[in-house]
């Protein structure tokens, strides 16, 4: 099984494809399965590294509170463990937040950045009732099944992880838009037009990162990487293939 030691923690990862290195960062309560269909558009051109963070996918829980700073440290430790000095970074949801923090605080490690459905702070979430679409419900059920099937901690551990994630999402991140002015990596900011992150908040991110490109995917929710993987993957691939 493709496990390796990441800062003393037994962590699952996969490496597929060929080409320049690309780091794929999944969302909260997700595994790399969430982004597998999308990454199929990337593997012909990139060597895709897909780690699963602690308490996600096939990587066991570490029992500590979740914190985005610690997730950045975990990601840097993974890059070191596989011998990558830098990589293109594609992050979804929590992975998008990690990608933004990597590009801001460790610019030498990020060749280019794609953030999908990320947020700068908890105010980015859409407020009020919204009836979930059938596509969202199907994607959400898929993620729940994947946790039950993959987690080495067992299905009964899901509420423990969910509770700690909810504590994280209601308090973090706290990224000041002006702090992203120093991001030097070419950046694409993406979200769905029915995302749980408001379009206005997504625009704030794109406006804060110098020369960032913006893409709002039509007919897609926060789980756009599951709902529209082919489209999302092609957009990401085309962006990465562009040269300044």
UniProtKB/TrEMBL annotation:
It comes from the Bacteria. It holds the Pfam family Abhydrolase_6. One of its GO terms (molecular function) is triacylglycerol lipase activity. InterPro entries: AB_hydrolase, AB_hydrolase_1, AB_hydrolase_fold. Residues 22-231 form the AB hydrolase-1 domain. SUPFAM superfamilies: alpha/beta-Hydrolases. GO terms for biological process: glycerolipid catabolic process. PANTHER family: AB HYDROLASE-1 DOMAIN-CONTAINING PROTEIN, HYDROLASE, ALPHA/BETA FOLD FAMILY PROTEIN. This is Pimeloyl-ACP methyl ester carboxylesterase. It comes from Nocardioides lianchengensis. The lineage of its organism: Bacteria, Bacillati, Actinomycetota, Actinomycetes, Propionibacteriales.
